[in-house]
Amino acid sequence: MALNKEKKYISKGYEAGAVDYITKPVDPDLLILKVKAFLKLHQQQNELKDIRDLLSKEIEIRKEAQENLELKVRERTRELSSKNEELELRNHELQQFSWVVSHDLKEPVRKIEIFTKIIKEKFLVADEKADDYINRTISSAGRMSKLITDLLEYSRLSAKVKPEKTDLNNVVFEVLSDLDYLIEEKKATVKAQHLPVIPGVPSQLRQVFQNLIGNALKFSKDDVAPVIEIGCEIITERKFDGATSPKANSAASP
User: Are strands 197-200 and 164-167 parallel, antiparallel or unpaired?
Assistant: First the structure.
């Protein structure tokens, strides 16, 4: 409570730590308003303190979460780096293994091809049937050599295998030539439509037809001559149950 309204006394009061003052005679209404104002100010200060404490806790929680996340990221990065190094090592080992295996396989195939040609030229000149079998053997040996080369290329994971224009008619012809002994043994009939030229990897497409036709022959009934039909269709969309395009007939005809 201020005893004097002069500025020097009011200044001394503020310097001493007062936040406000009232003068005599005391006005009750003014005193009540001042008390209410200070109570509200005190309440707001407490609320601000609570908010400040909550913000500090939130900052600590987020900081801890960020540190944990960074730690997990570092651990995951180290793990992926280790896995990548292991993968590179295995890839290198695979390439080395494929090269050795391919080299070891190609050499006996090459000898089969050479010796078969020698037998053909020296001993089977007049035997038409034997000559046909020899030609098939030489052709199969050549394709085997090509398959081994393709295997070596495919096993090199660092090298990208690029699709190329592949005539499926040639692919099917080669597969049927390799399986001709089984076709004869099963007395099978193979009906192949004219197939399109598509982008693809020849060795992989050949493997597809080799598996399909080979399984059809292998798992046929012993007392029933299998009939294998090979054809194609153009569909309107890339789905298993996609509708056939009107262009399908023209694409499949010879």
Answer: antiparallel
Domain boundaries, the chain: 12-62, 162-173+182-254
Lookup: tokens for 224: 């029933």
Look at residue 250 and tell me whether its pLDDT is greater than 50: no
- Residue where the block lists tokens 């806790």: 57
Distances (CA, A) of 13 to 17, 27, 192: 7, 20, 111
The answer to whether 216 touches 183, Cβ cutoff 8 Å, is no
C-alpha closest to that of 10 among 20, 32, 27, 31: 20
Q: ∠ at Cα 210 (204, 215), nearest 5°?
A: 135
**What is d(CA 1, CA 10) in angstroms, rounded to the nearest whole number?**
10
Where do we find the tokens 């707001």? 44
Asked if residue 254 lies in contact with residue 194, where contact means CB atoms within 8 angstroms, the answer is yes
DSSP secondary-structure letter at 179? T
**244 three-state secondary structure:** strand
Phi and psi at 199, nearest 5°, equal: -75, 130
Q: Token digits for 9?
A: 């006394």
pLDDT in tens, 111-168: 777 778 888 777 776 777 777 778 888 887 877 777 777 776 666 554 566 788 999 9
- Measured between alpha carbons, how far is 91 from 84 in angstroms, rounded to an integer? 10
